[in-house]
Structure formats: C-alpha cells, structure tokens
Design goal:
Blueprint: H1 3-25, H2 52-55, H3 60-67, H4 75-78, H5 82-94, H6 96-116, E1 123-133, E2 139-154, H7 159-225, H8 231-266, H9 302-323, E3 328-339, E4 351-355, E5 358-360, H10 368-434, H11 440-474
Antiparallel strand pairs: 1-2, 2-3, 3-4, 3-5
Helix pairs in contact: 5-7, 6-7, 7-8, 7-9, 7-11, 9-10, 10-11
Length: about 475
C-alpha cells in the first residue's frame, strides 16, 4: 500500500468520530422560544373612508393588497420634480451619513463571517525545524511537517451556532439601519428642497408687495402735495413699505439658510441656475389611503425590521449563555511526518499522528455563568420592549400623517379661496381710495389681508407637500429607486 493511500485511510478513520459529532451538534440549540410581541395598537388606523373603494366597503385584505406596495414605490416614481430627483440622486452618492451607514453594514458582515467561521474546523499545515545543543559540540536537529486542526470546539449544545446566529441578526439589523438612513435622507432632501422653494416664493411675494407699496407711497406723497390727503396717510404708507422691506429681507435670509442646509444634505454644490423660478405645489403625489389598510404594513418598515433582528440576536445570545453551563469538547489533532534529518523527512517510518480531545466541565465559576445568563435575558427583554416601541412609534407616525392629509387639503382649498377674495377686496379698496371715497387706512388693511393670505397659502402648500413626503417615509417608502 502506498504512503498516500495509507495516510488517507488513517485520516478517514480519525475524522469519522469528528464527523458524527458535527452532525449531532448541527441539530442542537438551547435558544428559548421567542416571546410574542404585544405593541397594543389598533388593527387599523383611525381613518374615515377616503376613496370610492373604501366607501363601498372594500375589505381590509383588499386594501392591504392595494397599499402594501408603498414600500416598493421608487422615489423616482413618487417625486415628479426632475430637479428634486437630481438632488436626491446626488445625496445618495455624496452624503456622509449614508456612507457611514454603508460602511457599518460592511463591518457587520465581516464580523458575521468571522463568527460563522468558528463553526468549521480550522485546518492548516505546519512545518517546524528546531536545533538544540547537546553535550559538547553536538547538536540535535528535528524537522516535521503536519496537517491538523487545533482547539476545534464540538458544538454539542449550540453555543457556537447561537453566537453565529446572533452575529447574523446583528448584520441584518445593521443593513436595515442603512435602509432607515436612506429613507430619512430622501425625505430630508425633499423637505429641505420644498422649504427652500417655499421661502424663495415667500421672498418674491414680499418683494412684489414692496414694489406695490412703494408705488402707493409715491402716489400718496403726490396727493399730499396737492392737499388731497393728510400727513397721516403718508406715514401709514411709509410704515407699510418698511414692513414689506423687512419681510423681504427676512425671507431672503431664510432662503439662504435653506440652501446651505440642502447643500449639506446633498454633499455637493448646487447649480442655482437649474433650479425652477417658481414654487411648484405638486412636487410629489400620493393617492388617498383606503380605510381598511391594517397596521401590519408597519412590520415592513426598516426601523421595525431592525428592532426585530436585534430581538432575534438577543434571543440567540441566551442560547449561547445557556450552553456555557454544559460541558464543552475541543479537539486537537494532526498527522504528519518527522525526522532528525531533512533528507529523511518523507522517508519510511517518519509518519506520526496525534489526537488530543479536551473536556471542559464547569463546576464553580463564582456565579459568573448565571450572571451572564441574566444579562442576556435582560437584554432580550429590552430588545422586545424596543421592538414594541418601534411598532407603536410607527403607528403614531402614520396616524398623524393620515390625520393631516384631509385637513391640509381642505385648508389649502380654503386658503386659495381666501387669496381670491382678498385680491378682489384689495382691487375695490384701491379704486375707492383713488376715487377719494375711502381713507388710505382701508386700502392698507386690504393690502395686509391680501399679503397675509398669500404668505399663508405658501405655508399651507409647503405643509401639505411635507406631509405627503412624511407619509411616504413613515410607510417605508424611499428605499428603491424604481417601483418594484
């Protein structure tokens, strides 16, 4: 029989008990059953019917099937403003917070691979050459080459498997955290852009009011020179001009701050020449949510998924802590060849093998094992509470956004009607003032009403669009670029 075949058979006989032990260990774990979560939230959001399907009695499951894809709606399909899409695209490439989140995912993945490698024996080749001095000028040489494994733990009670699963769940939690960061980034870029455009529009309204009031001041001064009005009208007109000038400067400063915030989120310079001149109140769109949508859609939110994986990781750590109470077996073995001469290293009679199992039975640890088990159990209970809290917070976020959806729409419609009515009143007041039938105070009051209505309309439009973005984010949208 050749030396190679003899070595292979010898290795197979020595590794047979190891293979059996590995097969037994693969079926064992001491992880406790996962306790059920009880977030104590209603099965559905408190929302009246808002669509024809809901009004006709659309089933909860049908509504759920219609809207659970909101998470899969890509942000390019949700936002209709090409400028905003371009800014979001730049932010996803350049934003430092998102870059740190991506690096955290890579780190967690590497840590999981390190822990997973503990389930497999580490086999390596080792070569040594030693020389020891003897009596007189004599030296003793020893050469050896061996193939073996060192301190491999047979996972009889699932300790290594539980630690590996905990590392996997931590990696998945970190990946979900990255998704949460991206969702937040997309929403923050959209809100910063909307706020910047709204403040620019408010600046234009204030500047237009300033021009109109300066023209009115010139006309009032001329009429004062002819004795048609008194000094009080001139002072009132001057006060109105300075108020408009103050508002124009204030809104211009706010717009400059908004631009700085947007640049920080995007992580790059912004070409202002490519930005639209007017504020578009329809930068995003989201159809009304049916009344029957269950709150189960929250379970797909990245932050809720992150909390769930952390709970599973904590539960796996309990299994590892329980397994520490039981005996552990470590195997160390090698096969190879050794000789006192380098030329005879692979000659006949130089082969050797070693096999050294080690049994570790914990008897007294000063209470450290029980304390460690209590720590893991407390961490599991904390993770469970955090998981329930994430569901509760998500329910409130969606409920708040849905509650404002209808009211903001009604408020915008009323605000548009108010602007139209205030505009007609201002025209009539101006005509009556120029005809000498009313004082300048009446015209000034009409101008202030119209100015305030226009500014309130801009704020309402901004609030409505920001709430649509918020609803899109709290439902878990914003992760995909295109609709799946």
């Amino acid at each position: 029989m050749s030396a190679a075949r003899f070595g292979a058979r010898l290795a197979a006989r020595r590794l047979a008990p190891l293979a059996a032990a590995l097969a037994l260990a693969a079926c064992t774990t001491l992880e406790p059953p996962l306790p059920p979560a009880d977030p104590s939230i209603p099965a559905q959001w408190p929302l009246p019917p808002t669509t024809a399907g809901a009004a006709q009695g659309e089933s909860a499951q049908g509504a759920f099937d219609a809207q659970r894809g909101m998470i899969d709606v890509g942000w390019r399909d949700f936002f209709v403003d090409p400028t905003l899409e371009r800014l979001i695209e730049q932010a996803l490439v350049n934003n430092r917070d998102l870059r740190v989140a991506a690096l955290n995912v890579e780190r967690a993945q590497a840590l999981y691979r390190v822990q997973r490698a503990e389930q497999l024996p580490a086999v390596g080749v080792q070569g040594t050459a030693t020389r020891a001095s003897g009596t007189g000028p004599q030296f003793s040489d020893q050469y050896s080459v061996s193939l073996g494994l060192a301190a491999f733990e047979i996972d009889l009670f699932g300790r290594v498997r539980s630690l590996s699963r905990a590392a996997l769940e931590q990696y998945l939690a970190t990946e979900s955290a990255q998704r949460s960061v991206q969702l937040t980034l997309v929403a923050e870029v959209a809100n910063a852009y909307l706020t910047w455009m709204a403040d620019r529009e408010a600046t234009r309204v204030a500047q237009a009011a300033l021009v109109n009031r300066e023209q009115a001041l010139d006309l009032t001064r001329k009429r004062y020179e002819y004795g048609a009005v008194g000094a009080l009208d001139v002072n009132q007109a001057e006060t109105s001009v300075e108020q408009a000038r103050t508002d124009a400067s204030r809104f211009a400063g706010q717009a400059a701050q908004d631009l700085n915030a947007l640049r920080l989120l995007v992580g790059a310079t912004i070409d202002e020449a490519s930005i639209p001149d007017r504020f578009d109140p329809a930068v995003s769109g989201l159809r009304a949510l049916p009344a029957g949508v269950p709150s189960e859609v929250l379970l797909r939110r990245p932050d809720v998924v992150q909390a769930e994986h952390r709970l599973l990781a904590s539960n796996a750590n309990i299994g590892a802590a329980r397994a520490a109470f039981f005996p552990s077996i470590q195997l160390t073995g090698a096969i190879g060849t050794a000789s006192s001469e380098l030329s005879g290293l692979f000659g006949s009679g130089s082969r050797f093998w070693t096999f050294g199992p080690q049994l570790n039975l914990p008897i007294f640890q000063g209470g450290a094992l029980r304390a460690n088990l209590r720590v893991t159990q407390a961490e599991r209970d904390i993770a469970l509470a955090q998981y329930e809290q994430a569901i509760q917070a998500g329910f409130r976020d969606v409920a708040d956004a849905l509650a404002l959806t209808r009211t903001l729409s009604e408020q915008k419609a009323a605000q548009l009607a108010l602007v139209a009515a205030a505009g007609r009143a201002e025209e009539l007041s101006r005509a009556r003032y120029e005809a000498g039938r009313d004082s300048y105070l009446v015209l000034l009051d009409a101008q202030r009403t119209l100015y305030g209505a226009r500014q309130s309309l801009i704020a309402t439009q901004l609030a409505e669009q920001a709430n649509r973005v918020r609803l899109y984010r709290v439902l878990g949208g914003g992760w995909n670029e295109r609709t799946q």
